[in-house]
Amino acid sequence: MMQVTDIEFKSAEHVIEEIENMNVKGGSPFGRAAAWAYKLVSDQEKFTNVKDLKLRYDRISSEMLRLKPTMATIYNSKKLVYNLLDSIPEDTDVSEIQRQVSELCASIINYSLKAVDSLGEYGSNIIQNGDTIMMHSYSSALMSIFIQAASAGKKFSVICTESRPLRESRLAAKILQSYNVPVTYITDASVWEFMPVADYIMMGADTISCNGSVANKMGTALISKLAQSCKKKVYIASEIYKIDLRTQEGQPVVLERRTKDEVIQDGDFDSLDGIDIINQFFDLTPAPEIEGIICEFGVVPPSMVTSYWGKLEEIVAGN
Amino acid sequence: MMQVTDIEFKSAEHVIEEIENMNVKGGSPFGRAAAWAYKLVSDQEKFTNVKDLKLRYDRISSEMLRLKPTMATIYNSKKLVYNLLDSIPEDTDVSEIQRQVSELCASIINYSLKAVDSLGEYGSNIIQNGDTIMMHSYSSALMSIFIQAASAGKKFSVICTESRPLRESRLAAKILQSYNVPVTYITDASVWEFMPVADYIMMGADTISCNGSVANKMGTALISKLAQSCKKKVYIASEIYKIDLRTQEGQPVVLERRTKDEVIQDGDFDSLDGIDIINQFFDLTPAPEIEGIICEFGVVPPSMVTSYWGKLEEIVAGN
Amino acid sequence: MMQVTDIEFKSAEHVIEEIENMNVKGGSPFGRAAAWAYKLVSDQEKFTNVKDLKLRYDRISSEMLRLKPTMATIYNSKKLVYNLLDSIPEDTDVSEIQRQVSELCASIINYSLKAVDSLGEYGSNIIQNGDTIMMHSYSSALMSIFIQAASAGKKFSVICTESRPLRESRLAAKILQSYNVPVTYITDASVWEFMPVADYIMMGADTISCNGSVANKMGTALISKLAQSCKKKVYIASEIYKIDLRTQEGQPVVLERRTKDEVIQDGDFDSLDGIDIINQFFDLTPAPEIEGIICEFGVVPPSMVTSYWGKLEEIVAGN
Amino acid sequence: MMQVTDIEFKSAEHVIEEIENMNVKGGSPFGRAAAWAYKLVSDQEKFTNVKDLKLRYDRISSEMLRLKPTMATIYNSKKLVYNLLDSIPEDTDVSEIQRQVSELCASIINYSLKAVDSLGEYGSNIIQNGDTIMMHSYSSALMSIFIQAASAGKKFSVICTESRPLRESRLAAKILQSYNVPVTYITDASVWEFMPVADYIMMGADTISCNGSVANKMGTALISKLAQSCKKKVYIASEIYKIDLRTQEGQPVVLERRTKDEVIQDGDFDSLDGIDIINQFFDLTPAPEIEGIICEFGVVPPSMVTSYWGKLEEIVAGN
Amino acid sequence: MMQVTDIEFKSAEHVIEEIENMNVKGGSPFGRAAAWAYKLVSDQEKFTNVKDLKLRYDRISSEMLRLKPTMATIYNSKKLVYNLLDSIPEDTDVSEIQRQVSELCASIINYSLKAVDSLGEYGSNIIQNGDTIMMHSYSSALMSIFIQAASAGKKFSVICTESRPLRESRLAAKILQSYNVPVTYITDASVWEFMPVADYIMMGADTISCNGSVANKMGTALISKLAQSCKKKVYIASEIYKIDLRTQEGQPVVLERRTKDEVIQDGDFDSLDGIDIINQFFDLTPAPEIEGIICEFGVVPPSMVTSYWGKLEEIVAGN
Amino acid sequence: MMQVTDIEFKSAEHVIEEIENMNVKGGSPFGRAAAWAYKLVSDQEKFTNVKDLKLRYDRISSEMLRLKPTMATIYNSKKLVYNLLDSIPEDTDVSEIQRQVSELCASIINYSLKAVDSLGEYGSNIIQNGDTIMMHSYSSALMSIFIQAASAGKKFSVICTESRPLRESRLAAKILQSYNVPVTYITDASVWEFMPVADYIMMGADTISCNGSVANKMGTALISKLAQSCKKKVYIASEIYKIDLRTQEGQPVVLERRTKDEVIQDGDFDSLDGIDIINQFFDLTPAPEIEGIICEFGVVPPSMVTSYWGKLEEIVAGN
């Protein structure tokens, strides 16, 4: 099983600091970090009245969303906490509210950690002996699948694209190497050439929109489109917690652009006059191209993905 | 106009040396280098009989084809020289044969240098003010087009993929920069994302096969395939001299794989056990996806490309 | 916000008259008109027993469905009223039944008027500054989206097809003009030519079938099909009330053909011997081609559309 | 057989006048008109020296190309005349030159008139009893095919799109009506709906580019693209004389935009502020989508089309 | 209406025997047979304690799943019985448990028999006078549709592929013949040739996976794929009971391969050295290619199919 | 090398008899048989004047074309003979004419036999070690390719569809077996399932039309269409002699339908009332789907195929 662990956060401020310093990485860790922030406030701090407590929560929320405005999981943690706050009778004791929020956040964190395990098992069921799987970039959900399949003794191999600019797939290749899964490592431009060799494609997700389309590392939509012309299925591995509920109301998934320094190196150009380096980091894969989203509820059709959010809410609420 | 110049070769052996040291780059320079080798033998060396002369030519041919077995232009230069040899009456004086071969080779070299200019003009006619063109990798034919269009005062911009592993497009971007052509520089995985912004695609060729399909830098076929799904035309810029005539007989274009060192850097992996780095350097774009091959005879349908070889032969033969 | 207002109906007979005279236009107005008919009967007329009341309702129903047999919204209003009638105990006082039906119909009318506003807001969230949107024909739902986006200060432009034979898009162009939204007005045959310029497509719906495919003005399916080949998303704006529940049981959406007089003008032909003018007015766009249906519940995957009917029923029933 | 007749031109100036007054219509009539202009100068006017004669030809050429700069057939007539002029020895008598030009132009005119007959026969061979053919706009080449098939007693029917804005297909429908060919007349937006009913598609050409792609009435490329998704073949009927030889050198086919008055009617809009009516009149259908170009040399693959220009030149030169 | 009848099973052992002897055919009969086995145990056998009863059920389950490990309907019957067992309080009387299991199984059997009727009615609603429908292989669900449509007086015709190797469509053709439905009988390789003649395609299902993709007789996916390129809709007729719930957890639908004897005949080959006859009997049609699954709940989008399993459970449980 | 031998024809009448008795099989044998008929008349029979000789030739021609009206190769042999007759001066001696026709026919026969060898070599160059090739039906041209590749020691395997109704691929499988080429034998309906396993597809031709589309055994076009959606190239192996020159003039390739007895067996149906068995034996694969036609001139683009007919004519004429 995948050993997913979070930073040992000391306080809500520590959470915000680590987010600011970019030590939190990946959609799920962000969601848990947000839950940790609310939890640590609830566990560690004292409030004389409800109004002050809520102001405190508000400050944390706006701070975290200021740093990562597009991160669905931070938004989701906030939403669950505020739904709870809204449901608690006005006259409840402030410490009781803190207790309930702390409990909810513990539940969110716990749920999130288990979700990767569950989807890893479902995804590993897809993998059969002899399969060759193309992947792209790095995804802890994907790693959970491969590790469970390898640990179960299945013999398969993986084609890793290097995934420029950051070449995150090096990490994926090393993990697969440590589990004795043979890896073929290719450049991103080689995916069409190598696609006939793959049996299917598995990729991760940064964010899922409510109609089941998936934002993920640049190149994911390209691979998915090409897969349609080569009779290959595309699976996306992701926890339901990565759904961006704002997309239900028509809000677009914001696809981050990052700094040009990640794309070029010293000495590449004497000057950038007239040269616009664009490091568009994410793209959007349309739902109809996705065979299934491998999540903690099984392998589900992308268009059905929002119907699982309600189940998630029930589980973290302990119902 | 594009200033294409060759290495100043001192002798046939020098040609071979420079090929071996990888100082000759690009299909057309290889073809001219081969012509130079035959020319220098013919101009500089003395032979007492025809048999010795032919043995000398044979040695040069096999040496060059040993170093670059798949290079169509080397094969073509050889073919033209040997066609001439076959047509010269047996009893011709050895120095007369040398003179004729030298003349032919001078004609080949001259033809090749002019071809890039001609196709540059035809290609620049395609470009209209306001156009945005996606390109991939580096190609001197492509540069000839862009330089002629820019020099003619046309206002257009170019989207350059970085073209891993060697990122040759940096050179293209610098040349375009020097001609004040705005460049957008993106990763290879971004081509599907940026394709709607392009008006059409222009790419070069390493080798053209007789049915009009084109071997070029890895990623060319990927871009071409995606262009079909985005209503964008694909042009290939290439001299006719890059046709591999052996493909007429069913021989496949050999698509070079290069060393893995070009793909990975020191420190990427502790060990490569179980990790197979494949640096497939060329791919093959199918003829029906290509709107036109921009060559020295104009913009021609890919399927018609072999019909221009005969015209080329006539021109270099001085008929 | 869109000022949607209905005819001020005086009586159930007046409703039927206005339907007959074709003064009621668009799926939603038909649904509300039907609700008005039941409401006016309930409010204005006196019945001594339940049987007579039901006979009266029956007569209205059959009259309206005779005039517009394929109109899903008339069918839906009838269905909701009769579901209520079925649920009321046999021995309820006739005036109490009238009161409940009147209340339900008021609720239906109110719901319908608000739905266009809600979907307008969700749709306007999709629109970003600088977007170019292709639309086809006229749709009040679509107008609600554009007006809300323009009113929110968003800068976007719209490509309107003329939408033969009736060229309804003239009305759309005028409304957009009044909100200072730049319009490009083209013939229907030009959509493939102009599609690369559009960022996405938004169209309305006459009827939605239970699997999410959409009947709309002739040309909608053509545009949608072409959009698939040009990397453009297709959104459909429509209230859920336009679902034709009969399609769940396999009944096809009946695609109206209208009179040939709308297609030809005086003097076009001396005689129509041997010339069959077909004015097929609606076509059917397949669900998998639709990115999302913009409805009062948000932007939902077409295949999920029936799951929102239950929610609508609950809301209009006041639960 | 199709009765094609030209205007009875009185003089070169008359030709230019009729071109200016838009009384010459269709690519082939323009080419013949240009030939008439050169012929009438040669037959009617007297020149004391060759220089004056050539100046006169030059003035006619520039006048006609100024009025219709994009018309390939005018350009082709000029090209053939000037090729002849270039081939005549410098010291030839001026009246002999006039005689030769007159003869060439008579040959061009004659060739053009016969070409429509020949292609009509070849096209009619394609039509089998029971076929349903979809056409678009009006084309005299197409009419020649249908008339020959009908005259040969074949029983077939034709689906005519109205072809906005000018609805030229009304003329096609009337001609078919007069030959008792049943016509189904539909709006342009209906082509996707009716395509399954058609067995194949036949359309005309305004201009053919050297790679076999075809400029024709707006909507032709749309229909062709949709035909690819419905297993229907697309034939283009056109004389070889419509090839635009300038496209060989990369020059784009200029796709005419015409006046907005053709698209809108009085009263459509109070003002056009903010409304841009674009009457793009032609579009470009890609060669690979065309099953065959029905020309005077038979039904030929579009990519081969330029190879027939040489044959045309030989025939009009009387060789 | 379709007369579906099961074997008159005498005992649980008899059920297993008939399964072993391959006298039970088709997904639904297998599911009912499994229900009969549990029912006959419950009705006919006596148990002194609950543990023994459960051991008995266990033995039957493992026996049936050993014989048909991939059969979803056997698995489903087991799952429903064991869900019931789990819900019964520990201390319930053994005979009461038997009674409840017997009742549940009767309900399952009854439900299954009615489901084919219901879907037959919904499917027949799709069929309009004049329609031509392409089908493949044999399916009792499909027959139910055709029989109900024919019995309702609809005039339509059916294209039957022979469906090698067993040519089950002969049975379909005979049944259609007996209902006076005209049949065109073609080889499997002819489906692309005849597809333009069909209005749509209807096929059956062996198993439905949770994402709506459908396992059915080899050739189904081929036909479905081709239908996408010919503008034809694909319907699948199947009871919900054929859903394989294990696919929710990523388990692949196991696609049976059968004996080579079904493919070759005596005398076809002298020896099979070096010849591998593969009789892959089922293939998998992707959900996005399917217009609708015609089931007992109506014509539903394939991606929604699992949401109907819950309704089925409620109905057979009598809630 | 493939041992192609013809029947030892005794006389022109014997040729006609063997054609009538269906002992001549395959396009090339038909063409040679026709040449044999003209040759045997010329060699064996005596004529006192040219008119009688020509009448005799006419009778043979019409007899053979009556029996096989659609067979392009019979038509081609006739055309070549008559072209020769037309070119011989009127006053030539009758025996001299006979000599020349006999010589031409010997040349045709010889050319045809060598063509299969040549294309076999070119095709075998395509095959690389480790390749898996999908084929369909039987074709002697295809066998020539496989035999030459196997004889050259290449290791490859072949997927054979059974090719209903006659299952000609059994013969192919046996020949491959005798050359130790591993064969996978599948039903026709399995081609989409097995396509990902194939590296490319090779099929034969019955007739080639002038635009390069290919008539071949039913299923060829189906496989070719599916190959486009699975990134597989389609090669067609055929001598140029199979071009049907009548298609240049728009004449369609006539696609034979054969007797229903080949499709059904005794006992399949009690009666065929209402069941129409259609044994459409050939279909037409569009040229743009074909990567190359493997012929005696190499691997050529389908659209160029007619340009090789002229070369063929020159060779058989001995020029």
Automatic annotation (TrEMBL), chains A, B, C, D, E, F:
The keyword Protein biosynthesis applies. Pfam families: IF-2B. The keyword Protein biosynthesis applies. GO terms for molecular function: translation initiation factor activity. SUPFAM superfamilies: NagB/RpiA/CoA transferase-like (SSF100950). Keywords: Initiation factor, Protein biosynthesis. This is Translation initiation factor eIF-2B.
